[in-house]
Protein backbone atom coordinates (compact mmCIF):
# COMPACT_ATOMS: atom_id res chain seq x y z
CA UNK A 1 0.00 0.00 0.00
CA UNK A 2 1.48 3.33 -1.01
CA UNK A 3 1.67 6.27 1.29
CA UNK A 4 -0.91 8.09 -0.77
CA UNK A 5 -3.60 5.45 -0.65
CA UNK A 6 -3.01 5.03 3.04
CA UNK A 7 -3.48 8.73 3.57
CA UNK A 8 -6.66 8.64 1.52
CA UNK A 9 -7.99 5.71 3.48
CA UNK A 10 -7.33 7.46 6.74
CA UNK A 11 -9.06 10.55 5.42
CA UNK A 12 -12.06 8.54 4.31
CA UNK A 13 -12.25 6.88 7.65
CA UNK A 14 -12.15 10.12 9.57
CA UNK A 15 -14.72 11.58 7.24
CA UNK A 16 -17.05 8.68 7.78
CA UNK A 17 -16.29 9.03 11.46
CA UNK A 18 -17.59 12.53 11.84
CA UNK A 19 -21.32 12.23 12.05
CA UNK A 20 -22.12 10.40 15.21
CA UNK A 21 -23.11 6.82 14.43
CA UNK A 22 -23.89 5.04 17.70
CA UNK A 23 -23.49 1.32 18.30
CA UNK A 24 -24.76 -0.16 21.53
CA UNK A 25 -23.45 -3.69 21.85
CA UNK A 26 -24.91 -5.99 24.45
CA UNK A 27 -25.10 -3.33 27.12
CA UNK A 28 -26.36 -4.34 30.55
CA UNK A 29 -26.38 -2.53 33.84
CA UNK A 30 -26.98 -3.77 37.34
CA UNK A 31 -26.95 -1.83 40.57
CA UNK A 32 -25.89 -3.31 43.88
CA UNK A 33 -27.82 -2.16 46.89
CA UNK A 34 -26.51 -3.96 49.93
CA UNK A 35 -26.70 -7.68 49.20
CA UNK A 36 -29.30 -7.59 46.45
CA UNK A 37 -28.46 -6.94 42.85
CA UNK A 38 -30.93 -5.05 40.70
CA UNK A 39 -30.72 -5.41 36.97
CA UNK A 40 -31.75 -2.11 35.43
CA UNK A 41 -30.79 -2.96 31.87
CA UNK A 42 -30.70 -6.34 30.17
CA UNK A 43 -28.84 -7.04 27.00
CA UNK A 44 -29.37 -3.94 24.85
CA UNK A 45 -28.34 -4.01 21.20
CA UNK A 46 -28.96 -1.00 19.08
CA UNK A 47 -27.44 0.66 16.05
CA UNK A 48 -28.16 4.26 15.29
CA UNK A 49 -26.98 5.67 11.99
CA UNK A 50 -25.27 9.01 11.71
CA UNK A 51 -27.77 11.85 11.55
CA UNK A 52 -30.63 9.55 12.51
CA UNK A 53 -33.36 10.72 14.90
CA UNK A 54 -34.30 7.89 17.24
CA UNK A 55 -36.76 8.05 20.09
CA UNK A 56 -37.14 5.68 23.00
CA UNK A 57 -40.49 5.40 24.75
CA UNK A 58 -41.29 3.24 27.73
CA UNK A 59 -42.84 3.20 31.16
CA UNK A 60 -41.24 5.01 34.08
CA UNK A 61 -38.33 3.17 35.63
CA UNK A 62 -37.61 0.89 32.66
CA UNK A 63 -34.06 2.17 32.33
CA UNK A 64 -34.30 4.84 29.64
CA UNK A 65 -32.24 7.40 31.52
CA UNK A 66 -29.75 4.73 32.52
CA UNK A 67 -29.20 3.78 28.89
CA UNK A 68 -28.79 7.40 27.86
CA UNK A 69 -26.30 8.05 30.66
CA UNK A 70 -24.26 5.05 29.55
CA UNK A 71 -24.11 6.42 26.01
CA UNK A 72 -23.13 9.81 27.46
CA UNK A 73 -20.32 8.09 29.37
CA UNK A 74 -21.62 9.30 32.71
CA UNK A 75 -22.25 5.77 33.83
CA UNK A 76 -20.32 2.61 33.12
CA UNK A 77 -22.07 -0.37 31.59
CA UNK A 78 -21.78 -3.55 33.66
CA UNK A 79 -21.39 -5.53 30.45
CA UNK A 80 -21.11 -4.66 26.79
CA UNK A 81 -19.88 -1.50 25.15
CA UNK A 82 -21.00 1.60 23.33
CA UNK A 83 -19.13 3.06 20.40
CA UNK A 84 -19.61 6.38 18.65
CA UNK A 85 -18.19 6.44 15.12
CA UNK A 86 -16.32 3.26 15.98
CA UNK A 87 -14.62 4.73 19.04
CA UNK A 88 -15.48 3.10 22.36
CA UNK A 89 -17.12 5.38 24.90
CA UNK A 90 -14.96 5.50 28.02
CA UNK A 91 -16.26 8.71 29.56
CA UNK A 92 -18.25 11.84 28.89
CA UNK A 93 -17.15 14.20 26.14
CA UNK A 94 -18.19 17.22 24.11
CA UNK A 95 -19.06 15.04 21.11
CA UNK A 96 -22.10 13.75 23.02
CA UNK A 97 -24.19 16.65 24.29
CA UNK A 98 -26.88 15.93 26.80
CA UNK A 99 -30.08 17.57 27.94
CA UNK A 100 -30.86 16.18 31.37
CA UNK A 101 -34.20 15.17 32.81
CA UNK A 102 -33.84 17.62 35.72
CA UNK A 103 -32.58 21.17 35.66
CA UNK A 104 -28.82 21.37 35.40
CA UNK A 105 -28.14 24.98 34.50
CA UNK A 106 -25.23 26.67 36.20
CA UNK A 107 -27.01 29.02 38.60
CA UNK A 108 -24.09 31.47 38.82
CA UNK A 109 -24.07 32.06 35.07
CA UNK A 110 -26.60 34.12 33.15
CA UNK A 111 -28.65 32.53 30.39
CA UNK A 112 -26.16 33.72 27.80
CA UNK A 113 -23.15 32.58 29.80
CA UNK A 114 -24.77 29.17 30.26
CA UNK A 115 -25.21 28.84 26.51
CA UNK A 116 -21.63 29.97 25.86
CA UNK A 117 -20.16 27.62 28.47
CA UNK A 118 -19.12 24.87 26.03
CA UNK A 119 -17.71 27.17 23.33
CA UNK A 120 -15.81 29.11 25.99
CA UNK A 121 -14.14 25.92 27.25
CA UNK A 122 -13.08 25.16 23.70
CA UNK A 123 -11.49 28.60 23.46
CA UNK A 124 -13.86 30.00 20.84
CA UNK A 125 -13.17 33.76 20.62
CA UNK A 126 -15.69 36.05 22.25
CA UNK A 127 -17.24 37.48 19.09
CA UNK A 128 -17.86 34.06 17.62
CA UNK A 129 -19.26 32.94 20.95
CA UNK A 130 -21.64 35.89 20.94
CA UNK A 131 -22.82 34.91 17.47
CA UNK A 132 -23.43 31.33 18.59
CA UNK A 133 -25.32 32.32 21.72
CA UNK A 134 -27.38 34.87 19.77
CA UNK A 135 -28.35 32.20 17.31
CA UNK A 136 -29.53 29.73 19.97
CA UNK A 137 -31.17 32.42 22.05
CA UNK A 138 -33.22 33.22 18.96
CA UNK A 139 -34.08 29.59 18.24
CA UNK A 140 -35.21 29.00 21.81
CA UNK A 141 -36.89 32.44 21.88
CA UNK A 142 -34.97 33.56 24.95
CA UNK A 143 -33.40 36.74 23.56
CA UNK A 144 -35.03 39.00 26.11
CA UNK A 145 -33.82 36.80 28.97
CA UNK A 146 -30.16 36.64 27.95
CA UNK A 147 -28.91 38.42 31.04
CA UNK A 148 -31.10 36.74 33.62
CA UNK A 149 -29.96 34.18 36.12
CA UNK A 150 -31.60 30.73 36.04
CA UNK A 151 -33.43 31.34 39.31
CA UNK A 152 -35.37 34.10 37.55
CA UNK A 153 -36.72 31.73 34.89
CA UNK A 154 -39.72 29.45 34.79
CA UNK A 155 -39.22 25.70 34.56
CA UNK A 156 -39.92 25.58 30.85
CA UNK A 157 -37.54 28.45 30.16
CA UNK A 158 -34.78 26.72 32.10
CA UNK A 159 -35.24 23.62 30.01
CA UNK A 160 -35.02 25.72 26.85
CA UNK A 161 -31.72 27.18 28.05
CA UNK A 162 -30.44 23.66 28.72
CA UNK A 163 -31.31 22.71 25.14
CA UNK A 164 -29.66 25.83 23.76
CA UNK A 165 -26.58 25.13 25.85
CA UNK A 166 -26.28 21.59 24.49
CA UNK A 167 -26.83 22.70 20.89
CA UNK A 168 -24.44 25.64 21.08
CA UNK A 169 -21.61 23.21 21.77
CA UNK A 170 -22.13 21.57 18.35
CA UNK A 171 -22.15 17.93 19.48
CA UNK A 172 -22.17 15.05 17.00
CA UNK A 173 -24.71 13.25 19.12
CA UNK A 174 -27.48 14.90 21.07
CA UNK A 175 -28.87 12.89 23.97
CA UNK A 176 -32.15 14.25 25.26
CA UNK A 177 -33.85 12.91 28.37
CA UNK A 178 -37.49 14.04 28.32
CA UNK A 179 -36.43 17.59 27.46
CA UNK A 180 -39.94 18.90 26.82
CA UNK A 181 -41.67 17.23 29.75
CA UNK A 182 -41.96 20.49 31.71
CA UNK A 183 -43.18 22.66 28.84
CA UNK A 184 -46.74 23.82 28.19
CA UNK A 185 -48.45 22.34 25.13
CA UNK A 186 -47.90 25.36 22.87
CA UNK A 187 -44.22 25.88 23.71
CA UNK A 188 -43.70 22.16 23.41
CA UNK A 189 -44.95 22.18 19.81
CA UNK A 190 -42.76 25.13 18.97
CA UNK A 191 -39.70 23.54 20.53
CA UNK A 192 -40.35 20.30 18.66
CA UNK A 193 -40.37 22.14 15.35
CA UNK A 194 -37.30 24.14 16.33
CA UNK A 195 -35.49 20.93 17.25
CA UNK A 196 -36.32 19.33 13.89
CA UNK A 197 -35.07 22.49 12.23
CA UNK A 198 -31.78 22.42 14.07
CA UNK A 199 -31.42 18.70 13.49
CA UNK A 200 -31.89 19.11 9.74
CA UNK A 201 -29.31 21.89 9.61
CA UNK A 202 -26.66 20.60 11.98
CA UNK A 203 -26.75 16.96 10.95
CA UNK A 204 -26.46 15.69 14.48
CA UNK A 205 -27.59 12.30 15.58
CA UNK A 206 -30.39 12.54 18.12
CA UNK A 207 -31.31 9.97 20.74
CA UNK A 208 -34.45 11.23 22.39
CA UNK A 209 -36.44 9.95 25.35
CA UNK A 210 -40.06 10.78 25.97
CA UNK A 211 -43.29 9.56 27.53
CA UNK A 212 -45.30 11.38 24.91
CA UNK A 213 -46.25 9.12 21.98
CA UNK A 214 -47.32 12.06 19.78
CA UNK A 215 -43.99 13.71 20.35
CA UNK A 216 -42.12 10.50 19.54
CA UNK A 217 -43.93 10.04 16.23
CA UNK A 218 -43.76 13.67 15.21
CA UNK A 219 -40.01 13.91 15.79
CA UNK A 220 -38.44 10.62 14.95
CA UNK A 221 -37.46 8.46 12.06
CA UNK A 222 -37.47 5.42 14.27
CA UNK A 223 -39.14 4.62 17.59
CA UNK A 224 -38.00 2.03 20.09
CA UNK A 225 -40.24 0.77 22.84
CA UNK A 226 -38.69 -0.33 26.10
CA UNK A 227 -40.07 -2.41 28.94
CA UNK A 228 -38.83 -2.93 32.47
CA UNK A 229 -37.52 -5.86 34.44
CA UNK A 230 -34.79 -5.82 33.17
CA UNK A 231 -34.84 -2.85 30.79
CA UNK A 232 -35.04 -4.15 27.23
CA UNK A 233 -36.35 -3.28 23.78
CA UNK A 234 -39.74 -4.80 23.01
CA UNK A 235 -40.62 -3.03 19.82
CA UNK A 236 -39.18 -1.09 16.92
CA UNK A 237 -41.11 1.08 14.45
CA UNK A 238 -39.91 2.94 11.40
CA UNK A 239 -41.86 6.15 11.08
CA UNK A 240 -42.96 6.24 7.46
CA UNK A 241 -43.95 9.88 7.37
CA UNK A 242 -42.67 12.60 5.04
CA UNK A 243 -39.20 13.82 6.01
CA UNK A 244 -40.54 17.36 6.17
CA UNK A 245 -42.65 17.35 9.33
CA UNK A 246 -45.31 20.01 9.32
CA UNK A 247 -48.06 20.28 11.95
CA UNK A 248 -50.44 18.62 9.45
CA UNK A 249 -48.44 15.43 9.79
CA UNK A 250 -50.28 14.87 13.04
CA UNK A 251 -53.50 14.25 11.07
CA UNK A 252 -51.83 11.83 8.67
CA UNK A 253 -53.47 8.37 8.72
CA UNK A 254 -50.07 6.69 9.20
CA UNK A 255 -49.43 8.93 12.18
CA UNK A 256 -52.70 7.94 13.79
CA UNK A 257 -52.21 4.27 13.01
CA UNK A 258 -48.75 4.25 14.55
CA UNK A 259 -50.05 6.12 17.56
CA UNK A 260 -52.69 3.42 18.14
CA UNK A 261 -50.12 0.66 17.78
CA UNK A 262 -47.68 2.26 20.22
CA UNK A 263 -50.40 3.04 22.72
CA UNK A 264 -51.67 -0.50 22.71
CA UNK A 265 -48.17 -1.95 23.04
CA UNK A 266 -47.38 0.30 26.01
CA UNK A 267 -50.74 -0.32 27.64
CA UNK A 268 -50.40 -4.05 27.13
CA UNK A 269 -46.98 -3.94 28.79
CA UNK A 270 -48.07 -1.93 31.76
CA UNK A 271 -51.12 -4.10 32.46
CA UNK B 1 -34.88 29.47 42.77
CA UNK B 2 -35.56 29.54 46.47
CA UNK B 3 -37.11 32.93 46.08
CA UNK B 4 -39.21 31.95 43.13
CA UNK B 5 -40.61 29.08 45.14
CA UNK B 6 -41.26 31.26 48.10
CA UNK B 7 -43.07 33.78 45.93
CA UNK B 8 -45.11 31.02 44.45
CA UNK B 9 -46.07 29.70 47.84
CA UNK B 10 -47.16 33.15 48.95
CA UNK B 11 -49.38 33.55 45.90
CA UNK B 12 -51.03 30.22 46.48
CA UNK B 13 -51.61 31.14 50.08
CA UNK B 14 -53.17 34.44 49.08
CA UNK B 15 -55.36 32.70 46.54
CA UNK B 16 -56.52 30.24 49.17
CA UNK B 17 -57.24 33.08 51.57
CA UNK B 18 -60.77 34.15 50.57
CA UNK B 19 -61.94 30.56 50.26
CA UNK B 20 -60.65 29.77 53.71
CA UNK B 21 -62.16 32.96 55.14
CA UNK B 22 -65.38 31.89 53.40
CA UNK B 23 -68.98 32.61 54.38
CA UNK B 24 -71.11 35.75 54.30
CA UNK B 25 -68.49 37.91 56.00
CA UNK B 26 -66.14 37.51 53.07
CA UNK B 27 -68.88 38.63 50.67
CA UNK B 28 -69.68 41.73 52.74
CA UNK B 29 -66.06 42.86 52.83
CA UNK B 30 -65.36 41.89 49.25
CA UNK B 31 -63.12 44.91 48.65
CA UNK B 32 -61.00 44.38 51.70
CA UNK B 33 -57.78 42.46 51.17
CA UNK B 34 -58.37 39.15 52.89
CA UNK B 35 -56.13 38.69 55.92
CA UNK B 36 -54.04 35.62 56.19
CA UNK B 37 -55.06 32.97 58.61
CA UNK B 38 -51.70 32.89 60.36
CA UNK B 39 -49.06 35.53 60.64
CA UNK B 40 -46.36 33.05 61.61
CA UNK B 41 -45.72 30.79 58.61
CA UNK B 42 -43.15 28.04 58.27
CA UNK B 43 -40.15 29.30 56.22
CA UNK B 44 -42.15 32.19 54.75
CA UNK B 45 -40.54 35.62 54.50
CA UNK B 46 -41.78 38.40 56.72
CA UNK B 47 -41.66 42.14 55.88
CA UNK B 48 -38.28 43.82 56.45
CA UNK B 49 -39.80 46.20 59.02
CA UNK B 50 -41.34 43.37 60.95
CA UNK B 51 -37.96 41.69 61.12
CA UNK B 52 -36.17 44.82 62.32
CA UNK B 53 -38.78 45.58 64.95
CA UNK B 54 -38.65 42.02 66.27
CA UNK B 55 -34.86 42.19 66.46
CA UNK B 56 -34.97 45.48 68.37
CA UNK B 57 -37.54 44.08 70.76
CA UNK B 58 -35.25 41.15 71.42
CA UNK B 59 -32.41 43.53 72.40
CA UNK B 60 -34.75 45.56 74.58
CA UNK B 61 -35.88 42.44 76.41
CA UNK B 62 -32.25 41.63 77.18
CA UNK B 63 -31.62 45.18 78.38
CA UNK B 64 -34.76 45.16 80.51
CA UNK B 65 -33.74 41.92 82.15
CA UNK B 66 -30.29 43.32 82.91
CA UNK B 67 -31.78 46.56 84.27
CA UNK B 68 -34.15 44.74 86.59
CA UNK B 69 -31.33 42.64 87.99
CA UNK B 70 -28.90 45.52 88.51
CA UNK B 71 -31.09 48.57 89.31
CA UNK B 72 -33.34 46.39 91.43
CA UNK B 73 -30.27 45.43 93.46
CA UNK B 74 -31.10 41.80 92.94
CA UNK B 75 -27.42 41.18 92.23
CA UNK B 76 -24.57 43.07 93.87
CA UNK B 77 -23.27 45.88 91.64
CA UNK B 78 -19.78 44.55 92.09
CA UNK B 79 -20.81 41.48 90.12
CA UNK B 80 -23.29 43.07 87.77
CA UNK B 81 -22.74 46.76 86.97
CA UNK B 82 -25.70 48.85 85.85
CA UNK B 83 -26.23 49.56 82.13
CA UNK B 84 -25.51 53.27 82.49
CA UNK B 85 -22.29 52.54 84.36
CA UNK B 86 -21.16 50.22 81.57
CA UNK B 87 -22.11 52.80 78.94
CA UNK B 88 -20.15 55.41 80.82
CA UNK B 89 -17.06 53.20 81.09
CA UNK B 90 -17.49 52.26 77.43
CA UNK B 91 -17.05 55.85 76.29
CA UNK B 92 -14.35 56.48 78.89
CA UNK B 93 -12.25 53.60 77.65
CA UNK B 94 -12.80 54.29 73.97
CA UNK B 95 -11.58 57.81 74.68
CA UNK B 96 -8.16 56.50 75.63
CA UNK B 97 -5.47 55.64 73.15
CA UNK B 98 -4.42 52.57 75.12
CA UNK B 99 -7.78 50.92 74.55
CA UNK B 100 -7.62 51.51 70.82
CA UNK B 101 -4.23 49.90 70.90
CA UNK B 102 -5.77 46.84 72.58
CA UNK B 103 -8.47 46.73 69.93
CA UNK B 104 -5.95 47.13 67.15
CA UNK B 105 -3.64 44.37 68.32
CA UNK B 106 -6.58 42.00 68.89
CA UNK B 107 -7.99 42.66 65.45
CA UNK B 108 -4.55 42.03 64.02
CA UNK B 109 -4.19 38.69 65.82
CA UNK B 110 -7.62 37.47 64.82
CA UNK B 111 -7.15 38.54 61.21
CA UNK B 112 -3.71 36.97 60.94
CA UNK B 113 -4.69 33.67 62.56
CA UNK B 114 -7.96 33.45 60.68
CA UNK B 115 -6.46 34.44 57.31
CA UNK B 116 -3.69 31.89 57.71
CA UNK B 117 -6.21 29.18 58.59
CA UNK B 118 -8.35 30.07 55.55
CA UNK B 119 -5.36 30.21 53.25
CA UNK B 120 -4.38 26.65 54.07
CA UNK B 121 -7.70 25.06 55.00
CA UNK B 122 -9.76 26.15 51.99
CA UNK B 123 -7.60 24.50 49.30
CA UNK B 124 -7.21 21.36 51.40
CA UNK B 125 -10.92 21.27 52.15
CA UNK B 126 -11.80 21.78 48.49
CA UNK B 127 -9.57 18.91 47.45
CA UNK B 128 -10.81 16.64 50.23
CA UNK B 129 -14.40 17.41 49.29
CA UNK B 130 -13.85 16.84 45.59
CA UNK B 131 -11.81 13.65 45.51
CA UNK B 132 -12.63 10.63 47.65
CA UNK B 133 -8.96 9.67 47.84
CA UNK B 134 -8.10 13.02 49.32
CA UNK B 135 -11.02 12.66 51.70
CA UNK B 136 -9.68 9.34 52.93
CA UNK B 137 -6.23 10.82 53.34
CA UNK B 138 -7.20 14.07 55.03
CA UNK B 139 -10.39 13.66 56.97
CA UNK B 140 -9.84 10.86 59.50
CA UNK B 141 -6.79 12.55 61.07
CA UNK B 142 -8.59 15.90 61.05
CA UNK B 143 -11.63 14.41 62.72
CA UNK B 144 -9.31 13.10 65.38
CA UNK B 145 -7.44 16.35 65.97
CA UNK B 146 -10.64 18.38 65.86
CA UNK B 147 -11.74 16.85 69.11
CA UNK B 148 -8.61 17.93 70.89
CA UNK B 149 -9.41 21.23 72.53
CA UNK B 150 -7.29 24.02 71.06
CA UNK B 151 -6.77 25.38 74.54
CA UNK B 152 -4.91 22.23 75.50
CA UNK B 153 -2.31 23.14 72.90
CA UNK B 154 -1.34 26.29 74.78
CA UNK B 155 1.56 24.78 76.71
CA UNK B 156 2.82 23.12 73.57
CA UNK B 157 2.49 26.32 71.61
CA UNK B 158 4.49 28.15 74.22
CA UNK B 159 7.24 25.59 73.82
CA UNK B 160 7.10 25.89 70.03
CA UNK B 161 6.52 29.56 69.52
CA UNK B 162 7.37 31.17 72.85
CA UNK B 163 5.00 33.83 74.12
CA UNK B 164 5.29 36.34 71.29
CA UNK B 165 2.77 37.33 68.65
CA UNK B 166 3.23 34.05 66.81
CA UNK B 167 1.96 32.10 69.79
CA UNK B 168 -1.40 33.92 69.72
CA UNK B 169 -1.72 33.62 65.99
CA UNK B 170 -0.82 29.95 66.15
CA UNK B 171 -3.50 29.23 68.75
CA UNK B 172 -6.18 30.91 66.64
CA UNK B 173 -4.86 29.04 63.64
CA UNK B 174 -5.04 25.68 65.40
CA UNK B 175 -8.49 26.45 66.71
CA UNK B 176 -9.84 27.28 63.24
CA UNK B 177 -7.81 25.22 60.82
CA UNK B 178 -9.03 21.68 61.48
CA UNK B 179 -12.66 22.65 61.79
CA UNK B 180 -12.41 24.72 58.66
CA UNK B 181 -10.93 21.90 56.57
CA UNK B 182 -13.79 19.61 57.54
CA UNK B 183 -16.45 22.23 56.99
CA UNK B 184 -15.08 23.28 53.61
CA UNK B 185 -14.89 19.64 52.56
CA UNK B 186 -18.49 19.14 53.57
CA UNK B 187 -19.54 22.30 51.71
CA UNK B 188 -17.77 21.02 48.63
CA UNK B 189 -19.48 17.65 48.81
CA UNK B 190 -22.82 19.42 48.70
CA UNK B 191 -22.12 20.76 45.21
CA UNK B 192 -24.60 19.18 42.83
CA UNK B 193 -23.08 16.20 41.05
CA UNK B 194 -25.49 16.82 38.18
CA UNK B 195 -23.87 20.16 37.48
CA UNK B 196 -20.44 18.56 37.31
CA UNK B 197 -21.78 15.90 34.97
CA UNK B 198 -23.41 18.55 32.82
CA UNK B 199 -20.04 20.26 32.47
CA UNK B 200 -18.48 16.95 31.42
CA UNK B 201 -21.02 16.51 28.64
CA UNK B 202 -20.11 20.02 27.51
CA UNK B 203 -16.50 18.98 27.16
CA UNK B 204 -14.98 20.00 30.50
CA UNK B 205 -11.90 18.14 31.71
CA UNK B 206 -11.75 17.23 35.39
CA UNK B 207 -9.63 20.26 36.13
CA UNK B 208 -11.98 22.52 34.18
CA UNK B 209 -14.96 21.05 36.03
CA UNK B 210 -13.31 21.93 39.34
CA UNK B 211 -12.50 25.42 38.10
CA UNK B 212 -15.74 26.26 36.37
CA UNK B 213 -18.27 24.29 38.43
CA UNK B 214 -17.08 23.12 41.84
CA UNK B 215 -15.43 26.38 42.88
CA UNK B 216 -18.16 28.80 41.77
CA UNK B 217 -20.85 26.51 43.14
CA UNK B 218 -19.24 26.21 46.57
CA UNK B 219 -18.43 29.90 47.02
CA UNK B 220 -21.62 31.10 48.74
CA UNK B 221 -21.54 28.23 51.22
CA UNK B 222 -17.84 28.82 51.72
CA UNK B 223 -18.45 32.45 52.64
CA UNK B 224 -21.02 31.36 55.15
CA UNK B 225 -18.64 28.85 56.68
CA UNK B 226 -15.92 31.48 56.96
CA UNK B 227 -18.40 33.77 58.63
CA UNK B 228 -19.19 31.12 61.24
CA UNK B 229 -15.52 30.33 61.73
CA UNK B 230 -14.63 33.97 62.30
CA UNK B 231 -16.83 33.90 65.37
CA UNK B 232 -14.75 31.02 66.67
CA UNK B 233 -11.55 32.91 65.91
CA UNK B 234 -12.66 35.64 68.32
CA UNK B 235 -13.26 33.06 71.01
CA UNK B 236 -9.78 31.62 70.59
CA UNK B 237 -8.34 35.12 70.65
CA UNK B 238 -9.64 35.74 74.14
CA UNK B 239 -8.22 32.39 75.24
CA UNK B 240 -4.88 33.27 73.65
CA UNK B 241 -4.80 36.63 75.39
CA UNK B 242 -5.53 35.24 78.81
CA UNK B 243 -2.00 33.93 79.19
CA UNK B 244 1.25 35.79 79.20
CA UNK B 245 0.39 38.94 77.33
CA UNK B 246 0.24 42.63 78.03
CA UNK B 247 -1.92 43.83 75.20
CA UNK B 248 -5.20 43.05 73.51
CA UNK B 249 -8.83 42.96 74.53
CA UNK B 250 -8.46 39.62 76.31
CA UNK B 251 -5.67 41.14 78.38
CA UNK B 252 -7.80 44.20 79.13
CA UNK B 253 -10.53 41.90 80.38
CA UNK B 254 -8.11 39.91 82.53
CA UNK B 255 -6.65 43.07 84.04
CA UNK B 256 -10.10 44.40 84.86
CA UNK B 257 -10.90 41.14 86.58
CA UNK B 258 -7.87 41.44 88.82
CA UNK B 259 -9.22 44.74 90.16
CA UNK B 260 -12.84 43.57 90.15
CA UNK B 261 -13.77 46.24 87.57
CA UNK B 262 -16.73 44.30 86.23
CA UNK B 263 -17.89 47.27 84.21
CA UNK B 264 -14.64 47.11 82.24
CA UNK B 265 -15.10 43.39 81.73
CA UNK B 266 -18.53 44.12 80.31
CA UNK B 267 -17.08 46.75 78.00
CA UNK B 268 -14.42 44.32 76.76
CA UNK B 269 -17.04 41.70 76.04
CA UNK B 270 -19.31 44.18 74.31
CA UNK B 271 -16.47 45.54 72.18
CA UNK B 272 -15.60 42.03 71.05
CA UNK B 273 -19.26 41.42 70.32
CA UNK B 274 -19.48 44.59 68.26
CA UNK B 275 -16.33 43.75 66.32
CA UNK B 276 -17.72 40.29 65.64
CA UNK B 277 -21.04 41.73 64.53
CA UNK B 278 -19.25 44.18 62.28
CA UNK B 279 -17.14 41.54 60.56
CA UNK B 280 -20.19 39.33 60.26
CA UNK B 281 -22.11 42.09 58.50
CA UNK B 282 -19.21 42.58 56.12
CA UNK B 283 -19.32 38.91 55.18
CA UNK B 284 -23.10 39.05 54.77
CA UNK B 285 -22.76 42.09 52.55
CA UNK B 286 -20.04 40.49 50.43
CA UNK B 287 -22.22 37.41 50.06
CA UNK B 288 -25.10 39.42 48.67
CA UNK B 289 -22.82 41.54 46.55
CA UNK B 290 -20.88 38.72 44.91
CA UNK B 291 -23.51 35.99 44.71
CA UNK B 292 -26.68 37.60 43.41
CA UNK B 293 -27.58 34.32 41.72
CA UNK B 294 -28.24 32.41 44.94
N1 LIG C 1 -27.91 4.74 41.23
C1 LIG C 1 -28.87 3.79 41.24
N2 LIG C 1 -28.87 2.84 42.20
C2 LIG C 1 -29.81 1.86 42.20
N3 LIG C 1 -30.80 1.77 41.30
C3 LIG C 1 -30.88 2.68 40.32
C4 LIG C 1 -29.91 3.75 40.24
N4 LIG C 1 -30.23 4.51 39.18
C5 LIG C 1 -31.34 3.96 38.63
N5 LIG C 1 -31.72 2.88 39.30
C6 LIG C 1 -32.86 2.02 38.97
O1 LIG C 1 -32.79 1.68 37.62
C7 LIG C 1 -34.08 1.67 37.05
C8 LIG C 1 -34.09 2.52 35.80
O2 LIG C 1 -33.93 3.88 36.15
P1 LIG C 1 -34.02 5.02 35.06
O3 LIG C 1 -33.75 6.31 35.73
O4 LIG C 1 -33.14 4.66 33.92
O5 LIG C 1 -35.55 4.95 34.61
P2 LIG C 1 -36.32 5.77 33.48
O6 LIG C 1 -36.75 4.81 32.46
O7 LIG C 1 -35.47 6.90 33.03
O8 LIG C 1 -37.58 6.31 34.26
P3 LIG C 1 -38.34 7.72 34.12
O9 LIG C 1 -39.15 7.62 32.89
O10 LIG C 1 -39.18 7.77 35.33
O11 LIG C 1 -37.30 8.78 34.09
C9 LIG C 1 -35.04 2.16 38.11
O12 LIG C 1 -35.77 1.05 38.60
C10 LIG C 1 -34.18 2.71 39.17
O13 LIG C 1 -34.71 2.45 40.45
MG1 LIG D 1 -35.54 8.98 33.31
From TrEMBL, chain A:
The GO terms this record gives for MF are: ATP binding; ATP hydrolysis activity
Q: Which residues form the ABC transporter domain?
A: 22-253
**Signal peptide residue numbers:** none
Its domain of life reads Bacteria
Q: Which CDD domains match?
A: ABC_NrtD_SsuB_transporters
What name does the UniProt record give this protein? ABC transporter ATP-binding protein
Q: Indicate yes or no for the key word ATP-binding.
A: yes
Query: What keywords does the record list, in alphabetical order?
Result: ATP-binding, Nucleotide-binding, Transport
Q: What organism does the UniProt record list as the source?
A: Cohnella nanjingensis
